[in-house]
Amino acid sequence: QTLDRGLEKTRNSFLHNLGKAIAGRSTIDDEVLDELEEILLTADVGVQTTLKIIERIQNRVAKDKYLGANELNRILQEEIAGLLAEKEDAQQSEIPEGIKPYVILVVGVNGVGKTTTIGKLASRYKKMGKEVVLGAGDTFRAAAVDQLVTWGERAGVPVIKQQMGSDPASVAYDTVQSAISRGADVAIIDTAGRLHNKTHLMNELAKIRRVIQKLIPEAPHEVMLVIDASTGQNAFEQAKQFSQATQVTSLIVTKLDGTAKGGVVIGVSDQLNIPVRYIGVGEGIDHLQPFDKMAFVESFFG
Ligand code: GDP
């Protein structure tokens, strides 16, 4: 239900446009496909993924020229679900058994909802009975540390921090070490969200990796990239930059409740070839949902 509400804006605008595109048409002809292309682009599915979807529908129409325009909705749902399913192999249980502490690095530019999302994750895992430790690795902004501490209190989990300006890699090291000595199940490490200098970002993330690997060679077990659905094409650009800077293993798409452009979920996942793990559908601590492909497609289409 939260998911439904979260995607309300996307759904309404998408269905409205789709309805207009097929109004009065009987078959899925080129004109309908042109309009569909426009609709997908407007929903921020992105150019490459939009073309891929259109091509797949064209193929289906070529095989069955009697496909009615009224079936476009269903076909589209199937193709989008198929597209998301191709990324599903990488999906795993939320916190795999037998890896302790499970180390998660969270990356993303400032303002996308990274701190909020870490708070939501901490609360979620804690409610699952996991011991969680947070690391305030965004040492560049004083507010980022304070904010994370507040979220830590809300979620009831400890936050490892150092003073502002200290080395993020050192905070990451302390966090993992603390998680090990407490016997914690999960360590979630925040990182700085500056993107103005790619080399710097790359070096910083590489250093964090190197340092925590001294404690746990396989860590980080997951690198989650947070993107803001309401920023449209910027989200695509950020996703590209971060995936070039480090190995991103999964996506969290925030603010789906505030935008009609939920197509970002489909496009970014497809283009980076990484699965979506969670979606953010509000500002509250419980407004985080594990991504469920079928539920997403169904609520996208009403
Ligand atoms: P950060 O700079 O990336 O750490 O971003 P913050 O966590 O400070 O979030 C920035 C703003 O986005 C805050 O006002 C959050 O309440 C808001 N926010 C985060 N996630 C969501 C979401 O899923 N939906 C909505 N509506 N707002 C969100």
UniProtKB/TrEMBL annotation:
List the InterPro entries: AAA+_ATPase, P-loop_NTPase, Signal_recog_particl_SRP54_hlx, SR_rcpt_FtsY, SRP/SRP_N, SRP54_GTPase_dom, SRP54_N_sf
The Gene Ontology biological process terms listed for this entry are:
SRP-dependent cotranslational protein targeting to membrane
Which Enzyme Commission numbers does its entry carry? Answer: 3.6.5.4
Q: Which GO terms describe its molecular function?
A: GTP binding; GTPase activity; signal recognition particle binding
Q: Tell me which UniProt keywords the record has, alphabetically.
A: Cell membrane, Cytoplasm, GTP-binding, Hydrolase, Membrane, Nucleotide-binding, Receptor
Family, per entry: Belongs to the GTP-binding SRP family. FtsY subfamily.
In its UniProt entry, what is this protein called?
Answer: Signal recognition particle receptor FtsY
Which species is listed as the source?
A: Thermaurantimonas aggregans
